[in-house]
Amino acid sequence: MKYNPEKVDEMTLALLYLVTSRTGDTGRAWKGFDRETLARLHRKGLIADPNTRETSLTITAAGMEQAETLFKKHFQRE
Predict the structure, then answer these.
(1) Which of 14, 25, 34, 41 would staple 70 via disulfide (CB 3.0–4.6 Å)?
(2) Residue 71, pLDDT above cutoff 90
């Protein structure tokens, strides 16, 4: 199936926001998402390298800011 990877990245980042434990301007979230999607988010500087043995990953400050915006855009009640 063909899909738009930009939209998948956007929704994944928004969902990561939902399960993030915040620490200052960054956060940690479970990394139970598609590896290729996480790799793209890492290349964009939105998350730390997901290729670790840890079950969670770090969302960067820029990633947290964008994740919050996307979460509100897609999931906030009007």
Answers:
(1) 14
(2) yes
Nearest Cα neighbor of 20 from 60, 76, 73, 75 is: 60
| pLDDT tens digits, 15-68 | 999 999 998 999 999 999 999 999 999 999 999 999 999 999 999 999 999 999
Residue 62 gets which letter from DSSP?
H
Class of domain 5-73: mainly alpha
Give the residue extent of every domain in the chain.
Answer: 5-73
Cβ-Cβ contacts under 8 Å for 50 (sequence gap 6 or more): 31, 35, 38, 39, 41, 42, 57
**Cα–Cα distance, 62 to 1 (Å, whole number):** 31
